[in-house]
């Protein structure tokens, strides 16, 4: 089994939203669309307000709903633009248009006076995998774009203050009118397998025991994606790979990455040599030994009962989609 495809799109992989350069420059269209627009509010810690829609309540003996009804899932709570201002504020950023609605994003914070407690505000790590795909992607765009603005307030060329332009998709400096645009840092993430029934998983030194994933690293200047895959795997575990093939990509706004997924083949007989500054341990895992980990709690939901067991990333990361897809391909082959 030398090739496979992702069984589903990764979380945060994108949304059908119009990201048109002409739209960003059309101030008149911004004004006309603002009255019906929705706004994603993100606080300084990358959290947005989330609400849960209740599932139908089970009736009691009297036919009345029972207290403590189940929750069917989280939804991103956006704000009506007209409730914020009569027109787009200078610091609002345009995310795009979808299904006749315009979406913007602004910085904000919980308003406890309005019974909007901090516990209702969650970040992408904790809720992104549970949100509807469109809402997760819109929130990811808002987090990434606002984070860039926070860190681009001064020009990299002359140090003068910068100001937003093009509905938040550029900043221009005062001294030289230099334009700067949102940064995205490409990173490769690669599932290494033996072409048959085993996959190579590793644990970073900063991770707790039992937590394993596939290998990843940032693309360097002047480097191709495929060259980065080969270099990172050789550096981190000392293994040579071949048959490098693209799988898919995922926005990863922590703070501004793009995860570009690949798979590659390696020989499990080659000795593993760890980069002990980054990797604590690495091992080849047979497909059968993955069964329990695939059914077990992921990193975020792990309990004391899971201690000593192999734990895999949660659904938010493309890493989990890659592992699920490889396992499914191996199973179907048998």
From TrEMBL:
Please identify the protein, giving its name as recorded. Answer: NAD(+) diphosphatase
Similarity section: Belongs to the Nudix hydrolase family. NudC subfamily.
Q: Which stretches are transmembrane?
A: none
GO terms in the biological process aspect are: NAD+ catabolic process; NADP+ catabolic process
The UniProt entry, under InterPro entries, shows: NAD-cap_RNA_hydrolase_NudC (IPR050241), NudC-like_C (IPR049734), NUDIX_hydrolase-like_dom_sf (IPR015797), NUDIX_hydrolase_CS (IPR020084), NUDIX_hydrolase_dom (IPR000086), Znr_NADH_PPase (IPR015376)
Cofactor(s) the protein needs: Mg(2+); Zn(2+)
Which controlled-vocabulary keywords does the entry list?
Answer: Hydrolase, Magnesium, Metal-binding, NAD
Q: Record's superkingdom?
A: Bacteria
PANTHER family attached to this UniProt entry: NAD-CAPPED RNA HYDROLASE NUDT12, NUDIX HYDROLASE, NUDC SUBFAMILY
Region of interest called Disordered, as start-end residue ranges on this chain? 54-74
Q: Which reaction does it catalyse?
A: a 5'-end NAD(+)-phospho-ribonucleoside in mRNA + H2O = a 5'-end phospho-adenosine-phospho-ribonucleoside in mRNA + beta-nicotinamide D-ribonucleotide + 2 H(+)
> What cellular component terms from Gene Ontology apply here?
cytosol
Q: Which residues form the Nudix hydrolase domain?
A: 182-307
Pfam families noted in UniProt: NUDIX (PF00293), Zn_ribbon_NUD (PF09297)
Keyword check for Transmembrane = no
A GO molecular function term, named singly, is: NADH pyrophosphatase activity
EC number(s) per UniProt?
3.6.1.22
